[in-house]
Amino acid sequence: MEVKTRAIVLQTIKYGDAQLIVDFFTEKLGRVSFMVKIPKSSKAKMKRQLFQPLMILNLEFDHRPKANLQRLKDVFIALPFVDLPFSPYKLAMSMFLAELLGQATRNEQVNVPLFSFIEESVAWLDQAQGNYANFHIVFMVRLTFFLGFSPNLESGAHGDFFDLEEGRFVSFVPTHVHYLNKEDSLRMLGLLRLSYETMHLYTMSRLDRNRCVEVILQYYRIHVPGFPELKSFSVLQELFA
């Protein structure tokens, strides 16, 4: 079956001297992996630069449902980036979020609202001229709403402790260890109310920001089976002093 779809690059692995294994989240089929041959000619259409983290592409391929790796027939950029590949801060964010998405959407089938959210978020980051230091945190929180384990915001009026297992605020200390103290719970409540447009109003130090990411990653590890430690987080921790 011939498929034409928009797709977001999540992970690229070098395979031999002239091939790549590329994992995409596609608009029409969800997660799909490809074996991509990169010709040596500088005039070739398939270039390594196309398959950088969070690149948004148009793909054309003959979909074989039983094949683990598909083969591309054609590819071209769907959303040309203006700033993201050239900003060290945005590039580090994109690497982190691509790794996060790669793990969180491993078994994701077609989910057009999720695809649209990712695409619109990446476009916002690319165009942002400033005030985006909290972008990855807001993205991580909002992503949970599309993956089915979003925190219960309404419960924030009824409790001082955030139960990471239940995904809600409670008025008592849970009997297990997966909960946030009052200070972290209050910060979580504030994060749940942020948008990309308002997040710059929430002032945090680098230490506070990293603590927020650690807490949210812990939440993901509880709710996404097999969710690992993210290697790119160490790079992100050094940004936005």
UniProtKB/TrEMBL annotation:
Q: Does the keyword Nucleus apply?
A: no
> Which domain of life does this protein belong to?
Bacteria
Q: Which residues form the DNA replication/recombination mediator RecO N-terminal domain?
A: 1-75
Key words, A-Z:
DNA damage, DNA recombination, DNA repair
Any one Pfam family here would be RecO_N
* Listed Gene3D superfamilies: Nucleic acid-binding proteins, Recombination protein O, C-terminal domain
Establish whether keyword Nucleotide-binding is in the entry.
no
The entry sums up its family as follows:
Belongs to the RecO family.
Q: What does this protein do?
A: Involved in DNA repair and RecF pathway recombination.
Name by which UniProt lists this protein = DNA repair protein RecO
Q: Name the gene for this chain.
A: recO
